[in-house]
Write a structure and sequence with these properties.
single chain; 92 residues; mainly alpha; 2 domains; two-stranded antiparallel ribbon; 1 helix; 2 strands; 4% strand; rod-shaped
Length: 92
């Protein structure tokens, strides 16, 4: 038996097209499943965006760690035979 197409007359004898009679129930089930999948996808995307925003705010307002080496201008003295490099931030 061939599969009934949407625009064929419905097999129940109502005289309506299949899509407007018994075909509508199957279509609605598919739409509900798509809607659930869309909501789930949207929920994951929203959670990801919120997490990234929170991470960005925490990173933005967290003070940077202090440099590990002191520059000679901060009262330190250069080791014998070494020169401070501003470009690299350490002695050479």
């Amino acid at each position: 038996m061939a599969r009934q197409k949407r625009n064929d007359p419905c097999a129940c004898g109502s005289g309506k097209k299949f899509k407007a009679c018994h075909g509508q129930t199957k279509q609605r089930k598919d739409e509900v499943q798509d809607t659930r999948a869309d909501k789930l996808t949207f929920g994951f995307a929203a959670a990801l965006v919120v997490g990234l925003v929170i991470w960005g705010l925490v990173t933005m307002f967290t003070p940077a760690p202090a440099p590990e080496t002191a520059s000679p201008g901060a009262g330190g003295t250069a080791p014998a035979g070494k020169v401070w490099s501003e470009e690299h931030g350490h002695y050479h």
